[in-house]
Amino acid sequence: MSAVLRALLVTPDNLLAGTFAELSRELGIEAHPSSRTAGLPNELQRAKYEAVLLDFDRVPDADSILAALRQSPSSKTAVVFALVSDAKQRQAVLQSGANLLVERPIEVNQIRRALHAAYDLMARERRRYFRCAAKFPALLVPENSAADFRCSSINISSRGIALETPVNSLPGDQVQVVFQLPATDSLVRAIGTVIWDDKHGKTGLSFECTRTEYQSDLESWLDKQLRDSRPTQKRE
């Protein structure tokens, strides 16, 4: 899963799309303009976006696109920027699932403020899906065994980890997993459940940290990896 935050821009307004895309780049957000709406509901069923800009002024089927977005398995929690100039329509759009309102005439500072306000929500949503490739030692303690064994991580997310292990496991097996986050003093302890095992030395776990501070440390570390993986934006 790419660490890049992605925004879909649904508008025929080239000035709006260009301004939003340029300001998005300041935050490392990858903008994807779309002036055509045919097929967008299907696109939203497949693609993952952390934000969607919907131009209710100039996209006749914006309501149906928003409805499809909120039913999308991959993008239903995306932050929605709704461009709505009609005062009577704004409340209805918010009730339909929009998060932030933008209005014409387009002002650079207005859009910049909206993007900054939404960035943490977008990053949090990406972190839910972000799987960080990282190699570090871990200790596994099977639930029904006094013997523990050492293994090595392949990748990790906020609720799961893939490991190289010397022992095969069965889906549903319970284990305790202990590891230190790279380049930190933070030790994480969690209770894991085996989700898959390829019988060739690789195992995938879902897990729950045993303390809230462990989860907080892990999420802070993942946030840093997410930030560091963003492409550096050159300023003209």
Structural notes for this entry:
The protein has two domains: 5-129, Rossmann fold (3-Layer(aba) Sandwich), CATH 3.40.50.2300; 132-228, Thrombin, subunit H (Beta Barrel). It has six helices and twelve strands. It has helices spanning 14-26, 40-46, 62-70, 87-95, 108-129, 212-228, and strands at 5-10, 29-34, 51-55, 79-83, 100-102, 132-133, 137-142, 149-156, 160-164, 174-180, 187-197, 202-209. The protein has a six-stranded antiparallel beta barrel. Strands 2-1-3-4-5 form a five-stranded parallel beta sheet, sandwiched between helices. Helix 1 (14-26) crosses helix 5 (108-129) and helix 2 packs parallel to helix 3. The longest helix has 22 residues, at 108-129. Mean pLDDT is 88; it is low at 232-236.
Provide a compact summary of the structure.
This protein has 236 residues and is an alpha/beta fold. Helix content is 33%, strand content 31%. A 6-stranded antiparallel β-barrel has the order 7-8-9-12-11-10. It has a 5-stranded parallel sheet with strand order 2-1-3-4-5, sandwiched between helices.
